[in-house]
Amino acid sequence: MAAAATGAPPADSGWRDPRARLLIAAVLPLVLLVAWAVIVGPRLAVPAGARVGSPAPELALADLQGNPIRLADLRGRPVIVNFWASWCGPCVEEFPLLEQARQRHAADGLTVIGVVFLDSSEAARDFMSRMGAEWQAAMDPAERAADRYGIFGPPETFFIDANGTVMARQIGQLSAADLERHLAKITGKEVSHGE
User: Fold this and answer.
1) In the chain, fewer beta carbons within 10 Å around the N or the C end?
2) How far is the C-alpha of 124 from the C-alpha of 34, rounded, in Å?
3) How confident is the model at residue 103 (pLDDT cuts 50, 70, 90)?
4) Residues 20 and 106 placed together within one structural domain of the fold
5) What does the alpha-carbon distance between residue 52 and residue 7 come to, in Å, rounded to a whole number?
């Protein structure tokens, strides 16, 4: 009762004090913004090497069987580099399109490389088997390839021509029309889905 008579807030008021709420309301967004910048910010900076019209960043990874995969070894051939994960719903939808494209353009030397993003090798092997995908898939355990390519999240796909230049980038799920349009840029052939 004495505290009320003097105008001082009661000792247990804490969060009810308007000044404390105002301070929290002012500081909390700043703390969240700094946390977001530290955690997410680096992923938003797309390296120059992953940009359309630039040389593709080198990939030097091991596939799910432990065999080396090097993008430099595929010079002279069109290449699709697809970042995916077994937990990625859109990846389920686009995998059959990629397999069909790989088969249709085998004579053109088209190579598809899947880079597993934030997933286990066991889950990746099971997913590849279930999806009937027969291209090489590589683990990226330290996310170095994902960082070099500036990956936001799966699926993301890069279309690289025979000279090693990134000709197209698809952020998100590929449709049949997207795939046709991007394949034409790296194979030099107009294609139609279901050819």
Assistant:
1) N
2) 34
3) very high
4) no
5) 67
Structure tokens at 119: 């997933």
> How many other CB atoms are there within 10 angstroms of residue 23's CB atom?
11
Domain count, the chain: 2
Say what the pTM is. 0.73
131 in the same domain as 101: yes
User: Which residues make Cβ contacts (< 8 Å) with residue 28, sequence separation at least 6?
Assistant: none
d(CA 100, CA 119) in angstroms, rounded, equals 24
CATH number at residue 183: 3.40.30.10
Tokens for 143, please give them.
């996310």
> Which residues fall within 8 angstroms of residue 102, CB to CB, at 6 or more apart?
80, 110, 111, 112, 134, 135
Other beta carbons within 10 Å of 8 = 10
Q: In terms of residues, how long is the chain?
A: 195
CB half-sphere exposure, 95, CA atoms < 13 A: 25
Q: Which domain holds residue 150?
A: 47-187
> Which tokens belong to 150?
């500036």
Helix (H, G, I), strand (E, B) or coil at 194: coil
83 and 26 both lie in a single domain: no
> Are the beta carbons of 184 and 176 closer than 8 angstroms?
no
Residue 47: per-residue pLDDT: 46
Residue 66 belongs to a domain: yes
